[in-house]
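Q: Structure tokens for this one, please.
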Amino acid sequence: MILAAGRGERMRPLTDHCPKPLLEAGGKPLIVWHIERLRSAGFSELVINHAHLGWMIEEALGDGSRFGVSIRYSAEPEALETAGGIRQALPLLGEAPFLVINGDIFCDADLGALRGALDGPAAGDLAHLLLVDNPEHNPQGDFALAKGRVAAQGADKRTFSGIGVYAPALFDSLAAGRAAKLAPLLREAMAAKRVSGALHHGQWLDIGTPQRLAALDTALRSAGSGS
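A: Here is the predicted structure, written as tokens:
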């Protein structure tokens, strides 16, 4: 699932007439970078939620066939926050654990390596989170990682990348159609010691401002990256 329902307030005025996932960097929309990386990692069935100017996302991406994937959409009349949006999309996501990626990040993580993150010995876990070193705009980090387990408190906190694998049961307490944040659910699962994690050392950017978008665009173009 690609999360694409945010209003993009910090991106205004760029997002006044264009949904944030369709903003371009390196010659293609941000969300297309995700789709292509997911396809390369072996994910062929995608769900995308949307709210603000969502029709533009559907019009731009269609059923996904031109990208080699199948895309279904979870439309939200008003954005339901991260957990609320995932809960709303559960009928499309099925009963097995699924990967979720924020639409407003850029990351070169090996998404295929996250397949099976909640299988085997981790079958009782509710979430597996990919963490990154803290960027300048989040110096205190979000969660602590030690020996493959994630906790709400602890030394040397890292930043949540916006990429995670979740068991549908993580959202059991939520009602469909209600806005809900993800962090409280994760902290509850962490308290029950049911969250695993890993640290990504490669490229990761939170594209939350026009300045960061411009910097990414410059970097991609200077590197001559087109895929």
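A few notes: The longest strand covers residues 159-166. The chain has a mean pLDDT of 91.
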